[in-house]
Amino acid sequence: MDSSVGFLSNVATLVTVFMFLCPFNECRTALQTKTVSPSFNILPYVTTAMTSTLWFTYGMMTDQPPLIRVNSIGIVLEIAYSAVFFTVARTNKNAKILVGALAFTFSVLALTYIVEPPELAVQLLGLLCCSVNIICFASPLTAVKEVIRTKSTEALPPLVLQLAMFLTPLLWYFYAYLIDDSFVAVPNGLGALLGVVQLYLRYKYTQRKSRNDFIPLGA
């Protein structure tokens, strides 16, 4: 059991760190050019920094080194991304997003130290982490809706990132299953299912496009 948990957590950590590093080039370009694309949205970076902080705290309170390790990396990278992008795209909207995320995060952290007994604080934090993760599925669900509406895969992320977005929650789900942690298992199980749906849609509409682009000889 211990070896399986260790293996899963190590692989899950590697895949998750890969996902954390995906925005690095975009961030570096923004820093060099001092510009961002018109469609840029700082919310995903701020949200990921917030959720990483909450899961890091949950890992500390439940003594789960894998959660502590991976989310400490996430906190550093996502805060760096958020800081760079906010510096480049300093708008009232982005400022409100940052202030809101900071207020929510510090309120939750303060609550975990106020609530007694500690077991109740862990349950409360786990429930909040789980809920926030599920709410974050709104963006991928929007992409799924857009793919179905347009019958095009343009709204989906690149295939490599899409595979990582499927493998990451799948690995963390099995890790959570082995240690019997429903707060980690539920959002990651849902995330893996959403990843399956997105991969299926990519296959379905890529195949359809290939058939539509086929021109018979002699036509």
TrEMBL record:
Among InterPro entries, the record links this protein to: SWEET, SWEET_rpt
User: Does the entry feature the keyword Transmembrane helix, yes or no?
Assistant: yes
The signal sequence is none
Q: Does the keyword Cytoplasm apply?
A: no
Extract the GO molecular function terms from the UniProt entry: sugar transmembrane transporter activity
Q: What is this protein called?
A: Sugar transporter SWEET1
- Matching Pfam families: MtN3_slv
Question: A GO CC term?
Answer: plasma membrane
